[in-house]
Amino acid sequence: MSSIIHGAGAATTTLSTFNSIDSKILVAPSRTNLSVRSQRYIVAGSDASKKKNFVSGLRVRHSQKLIPNAVATKEADTSASTGHELLLFEALQEGLEEEMDRDPHVCVMGEDVGHYGGSYKVTKGLADKFGDLRVLDTPICENAFTGMGIGAAMTGLRPVIEGMNMGFLLLAFNQISNNCGMLHYTSGGQFTIPVVIRGPGGVGRQLGAEHSQRLESYFQSIPGIQMVACSTPYNAKGLMKAAIRSENPVILFEHVLLYNLKEKIPDEDYICNLEEAEMVRPGEHITILTYSRMRYHVMQAAKTLVNKGYDPEVIDIRSLKPFDLHTIGNSVKKTHRVLIVEECMRTGGIGASLTAAINENFHDYLDSPVMCLSSQDVPTPYAGTLEEWTVVQPAQIVTAVEQLCQ
Amino acid sequence: MALSRLSSRSNTFLKPAITALPSSIRRHVSTDSSPITIETAVPFTSHLCESPSRSVETSSEEILAFFRDMARMRRMEIAADSLYKAKLIRGFCHLYDGQEALAVGMEAAITRKDAIITSYRDHCTFIGRGGKLVDAFSELMGRKTGCSHGKGGSMHFYKKDASFYGGHGIVGAQIPLGCGLAFAQKYNKDEAVTFALYGDGAANQGQLFEALNISALWDLPAILVCENNHYGMGTATWRSAKSPAYFKRGDYVPGLKVDGMDALAVKQACKFAKEHALKNGPIILEMDTYRYHGHSMSDPGSTYRTRDEISGVRQVRDPIERVRKLLLSHDIATEKELKDMEKEIRKEVDDAVAQAKESPVPDASELFTNMYVKDCGVESFGADRKELKVTLP
């Protein structure tokens, strides 16, 4: 029981320290704060003294139930307000449409976003509703249309620039780094660049090396931009809306394989805080930090881990730049062990920066070195088996947790 | 040159009469705004459009303003040269002297609602848009009172309230930005145009053609101005471009070639371009101009061209001299008055330099300001973690 209160407590402290982008906007309580969810956790090994004695609880205790799901299931979710169910790409579209309705300065530009409806249907129907001047089909020139979006943003428009695949935005790297990121600073604050640059990235199903790139590692050092990664329909819509409303340039990383995730989301207007991490599953033994698609691999591994008697705390960091060191720090202070699971490459990825940040800031709280599981430093191969081996799989996560918790 | 013909034509009748008048009745510098029509020396060459007329409508007030503004810009650039050699300006410093006619001619044809965006050779464009000399010098010397608070430097002058969008260091990157500005003007129905300036070196950038394609496709009020000073740093145009007729490179986009050393021709071309862009979409203006200094202060400017060439252009085509001759031949001002004006401007510039030298450097806390709008409470560390640790506001 103590762990549940602890978990809820951690969530409430996070809630109270939200840095709202716009204080007037209703920020719906984060999903983890729903009392229903926390009550469902019957955690193995909830001793008062956590530090090193939990290992004795490695055998599943007979008094504890075997948990089939590590995530709270939704069938008895009675306290949730009537929402509506939709897929992740529909959630993105809903967010985009609501923002375009709300503010006439918001426009979308990208390849095939208009008449075609978007290569992943995120902008479907928008061109018919808002017209050609607000939903712009560009020719294939990432450098130019990203630059144009940034130029338009300098005057006050709020373009949402879509890269059909994040990897194509490498062609616009100069515009994103020098103009998007730096103009606010080099002009002494005269210009703000409220663009949103979004697109699907990550390793898909045998898409080949050039279409499986993870650009968050390349963009992370650009000063002046914010990066967020969505992983569920709820946070996809929330982050999309928050990104559009933000005065700073935001890069929203979506994942090719997550577009068809289904979830029930609230009917009312809500946004997610751009700089906040999401507590997916509170726990005691180890903090697992992840984002985007790897969240699902982690949750799958968590099922196995719980059955083995571990109690992982899973945090979806969501905000890739800047890191939500507050939530992460509180978690590290509680569990003293950190595992980072990411889809980026090992060298210079998000995990590498996060490891450095945790070591610098929370070194005293760590009982073991921070472990980081990332994709291999190879171009993503086409063959299915090879592709599987490049990316972190749940079995590897389980092994890593067992290793760290020894 | 045609101009000398022009001046000699009027001079033969008027000059002796004027000099015969006693000084007491000689009129002061004319600030008349009654129209004068002047023919440009060099005709316009056009591509896919009609050339504007060679007769430019102007007034003595305007020509005098040209002289004053160009002299101010020239003085500023020369002062920047000495400051750089005195190591008060560091890094890159790209000087515009020789090209002043472009800045003043363009300003005369447009309003402050029209946007201008240019590359790193932006000091004079900034002044033309209403920037103050002291702000320019402070920024060059990295002081807090500079136009970008000392954080931009020579290549990052901006003036939002005058629709001057900078000031960009990467060659050619400002062209898509400029087309974006034109897009926003069309989106907001501003009835204004954007002038995106770039050089002969940037004319070979892919993003130019990408942006041009989109602008032509979407009918954006974008005017792309190629400041052809014939050298992309050390490479002459004949060595870098297969087709150095930059006004024709737009292919399906109309273009106009203009004598960029003649402020009146520039004014006429910009006026024509503005009318065109508001109705028909993008147009390219190629301004045939010249820079006396090297590409930047670290380039002597004489390894890839002869000193004779530089002094030749200075003698025959200098924009300030041209306007001076015009003022004298039309009796708008006398030699002495112009010299006095130049002295005044020199003093103005020296005062601005002195004031800028006195201004303070930015505080350490300024390192972290303007990173984000409404910074998100992230902690940032400087080189020394103990000293510069700051929580972003």
From TrEMBL, chain A:
<protein>
    <recommendedName>
        <fullName>pyruvate dehydrogenase (acetyl-transferring)</fullName>
        <ecNumber>1.2.4.1</ecNumber>
    </recommendedName>
</protein>
<dbReference type="InterPro" id="IPR033248">
    <property type="entry name" value="Transketolase_C"/>
</dbReference>
<comment type="function">
    <text>The pyruvate dehydrogenase complex catalyzes the overall conversion of pyruvate to acetyl-CoA and CO(2). It contains multiple copies of three enzymatic components: pyruvate dehydrogenase (E1), dihydrolipoamide acetyltransferase (E2) and lipoamide dehydrogenase (E3).</text>
</comment>
<keyword id="KW-0670">Pyruvate</keyword>
<dbReference type="InterPro" id="IPR029061">
    <property type="entry name" value="THDP-binding"/>
</dbReference>
<dbReference type="InterPro" id="IPR009014">
    <property type="entry name" value="Transketo_C/PFOR_II"/>
</dbReference>
<feature type="domain" description="Transketolase-like pyrimidine-binding">
    <location>
        <begin position="86"/>
        <end position="261"/>
    </location>
</feature>
<keyword id="KW-0809">Transit peptide</keyword>
<dbReference type="GO" id="GO:0046872">
    <property type="term" value="F:metal ion binding"/>
</dbReference>
<keyword id="KW-0630">Potassium</keyword>
<dbReference type="Pfam" id="PF02779">
    <property type="entry name" value="Transket_pyr"/>
</dbReference>
<keyword id="KW-0786">Thiamine pyrophosphate</keyword>
<keyword id="KW-0934">Plastid</keyword>
<dbReference type="Pfam" id="PF02780">
    <property type="entry name" value="Transketolase_C"/>
</dbReference>
<keyword id="KW-0560">Oxidoreductase</keyword>
<dbReference type="GO" id="GO:0004739">
    <property type="term" value="F:pyruvate dehydrogenase (acetyl-transferring) activity"/>
</dbReference>
<dbReference type="InterPro" id="IPR005475">
    <property type="entry name" value="Transketolase-like_Pyr-bd"/>
</dbReference>
<keyword id="KW-0479">Metal-binding</keyword>
<comment type="subunit">
    <text>Tetramer of 2 alpha and 2 beta subunits.</text>
</comment>
<dbReference type="GO" id="GO:0009507">
    <property type="term" value="C:chloroplast"/>
</dbReference>
<keyword id="KW-0150">Chloroplast</keyword>
TrEMBL record, chain B:
<keyword id="KW-0560">Oxidoreductase</keyword>
<dbReference type="GO" id="GO:0006086">
    <property type="term" value="P:pyruvate decarboxylation to acetyl-CoA"/>
</dbReference>
<dbReference type="GO" id="GO:0004739">
    <property type="term" value="F:pyruvate dehydrogenase (acetyl-transferring) activity"/>
</dbReference>
<protein>
    <recommendedName>
        <fullName>Pyruvate dehydrogenase E1 component subunit alpha</fullName>
        <ecNumber>1.2.4.1</ecNumber>
    </recommendedName>
</protein>
<comment type="function">
    <text>The pyruvate dehydrogenase complex catalyzes the overall conversion of pyruvate to acetyl-CoA and CO(2). It contains multiple copies of three enzymatic components: pyruvate dehydrogenase (E1), dihydrolipoamide acetyltransferase (E2) and lipoamide dehydrogenase (E3).</text>
</comment>
<comment type="subunit">
    <text>Tetramer of 2 alpha and 2 beta subunits.</text>
</comment>
<dbReference type="InterPro" id="IPR001017">
    <property type="entry name" value="DH_E1"/>
</dbReference>
<dbReference type="InterPro" id="IPR029061">
    <property type="entry name" value="THDP-binding"/>
</dbReference>
<dbReference type="InterPro" id="IPR017597">
    <property type="entry name" value="Pyrv_DH_E1_asu_subgrp-y"/>
</dbReference>
<dbReference type="InterPro" id="IPR050642">
    <property type="entry name" value="PDH_E1_Alpha_Subunit"/>
</dbReference>
<keyword id="KW-0786">Thiamine pyrophosphate</keyword>
<dbReference type="Pfam" id="PF00676">
    <property type="entry name" value="E1_dh"/>
</dbReference>
<feature type="domain" description="Dehydrogenase E1 component">
    <location>
        <begin position="68"/>
        <end position="364"/>
    </location>
</feature>
<keyword id="KW-0670">Pyruvate</keyword>
